[in-house]
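re: the backbone from monday

yeah here it is again, tokenized this time
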């Protein structure tokens, strides 16, 4: 795996062996960013289930100012830290070593781009978006990108956001919510 485009484009990403994380493939990540961007003019990104950190690193590579990555798995945290170090721009990244729900309760400010790729997609995505909205963490121009198995059907609207785009790539489905 590697960073697809932008400032860090072409640099390799480490991933965790085994089934505890499901890294987004380069092909799906590239298609996802073409769908939502593909480049950004600043802003904050939040990745609640960081895995290898690839999505957040790609977003910063493509122009986001800073990223907050949340990961509870200790082995995945070590991979995230190695991948952040590879960027040589460590100050643009913060890794919170905790569960998503705890992170939401501790976060401050607003986020322009949010990635949700949880292990138990539908219920967790709905609960996470509702909690983020209730805590005032969604920027006015927020874009929430959810990656699920293609069989998962997400609601048309959750809290203050609704589906803007949805596309299937192989076994994965990408759903983008906006205000």
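seq for it, each position gets an aa:
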């Amino acid at each position: 795996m590697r960073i697809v485009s932008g400032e860090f484009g072409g640099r390799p990403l480490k991933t965790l062996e085994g089934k505890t994380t499901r890294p987004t493939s380069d092909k799906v990540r590239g298609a996802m960013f073409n769908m939502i961007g593909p480049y950004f003019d600043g802003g904050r990104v939040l990745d609640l289930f960081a895995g290898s950190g690839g999505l957040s690193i790609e977003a910063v590579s493509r122009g986001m100012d800073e990223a907050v990555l949340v990961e509870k798995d200790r082995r995945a945290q070590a991979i995230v830290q190695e991948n952040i170090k590879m960027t040589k721009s460590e100050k643009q990244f913060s890794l919170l070593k905790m569960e998503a729900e705890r992170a939401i309760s501790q976060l401050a400010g607003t986020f322009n781009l949010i990635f949700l790729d949880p292990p138990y997609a539908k219920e967790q995505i709905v609960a996470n978006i509702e909690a983020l909205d209730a805590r005032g963490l969604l920027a006015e121009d927020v874009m929430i990108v959810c990656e699920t198995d293609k069989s998962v059907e997400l609601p048309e609207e959750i809290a203050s956001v609704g589906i803007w785009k949805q596309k299937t790539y192989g076994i994965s489905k990408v759903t983008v919510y906006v205000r």
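The chain has five helices and eight strands. Residues 26-178 form a domain with the Rossmann fold fold (CATH 3.40.50.150).
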